[in-house]
Amino acid sequence: MRFLHTLSLLILALVLTGCNIKVVVSEGGVVSTLSGNYSCGSGQTCDVFVTDTNFDETFVAEPNPGFIFVGWKKRPAGFCGGTSGDCRLFTTLFAGNAVFEALLDGTTVYYMEAEFAEPVDDDGPIVGGSATACFNEALLQPGSRFEAIYDQELLRQTAEDFFVDGAAVFEGMDVLQSTREVESLAPGFSSTSVTRQFYTVDTSGPVVTTVGGEVETFTGSSTIISRTVYEPGLQSRFDLQPGEPFSQTVVATTTQSLGGQETSVSAELEITGTYVGRQVITVPAGTFEACRYESVTISRVEGQPEFVSENTQWLAVGSGVTLRVRAEGLDFQVLVEGTLNGVSL
Question: Which residue in 163, 173, 240, 259 has a CA-CA distance of 20 to 30 Å to 48?
Fold first, then answer.
């Protein structure tokens, strides 16, 4: 199970005049603003011109019947890429900020690309079996390495290298540290991230508790550094029986640094879910018996609307690696190939 739930607060400033934003909408939905000032239909590309520092619009993607909203596509010069909530763009807060003036020089065309798709069909029947079978202690111990390629709905394809470094200290706590390097393989889009996760392992549960993480993201000439602390720690539970629910509320405090500018935000995460049971699924890497988890996360940030996300995750019995992640009925991440400590899955 992926231990680091990424908290992302998107603050976008278009501080120069004459900025052109192209809203690109795939077949299957409509993008409009809460104000009603802008609307872009299915299969269209629409221009939005920002001419002053009073611009403040929230863009909402609405799927047509029989479709779902996949998310905002991650692409060069793209706003809200890799997210699936409402996208707010405004010029009212950071006017005169040298960092954003350097990024937004008024000569580049920017994009908001909404992707819609038909939902993925469900897999076969659910069978019994506890989640303990998907807890692999060896995967979480120092020296363990998992190398994989995943198909990503928004990033197209990524190469991942997960390695458990060993003992560490985070916020005064004795923990284990792992490092995950992720490289985008999408043509024309260069992005690399390094995530350090800090966690404890309770084998009597078993329960894995993530207390925080650090992420460095490199895109072109920009480097974004963020650090997240969870209070209390975020739990991944393997002590559940089929149909057993779980819930937790944590506060995630994220500090982000870009170009010498630092921002900090706290979000309350209300997580509820169910361990559904075991299920045989087929992904490009092969056919596996997997543990299926379903969850809903409500994120609350002061001064912002609630953000609700639904997530289904399949972990391989035995190895414990992530086989597939599905959000809003669509596969966001699917395992193409992988090796665990040099052995193919």
Answer: 259
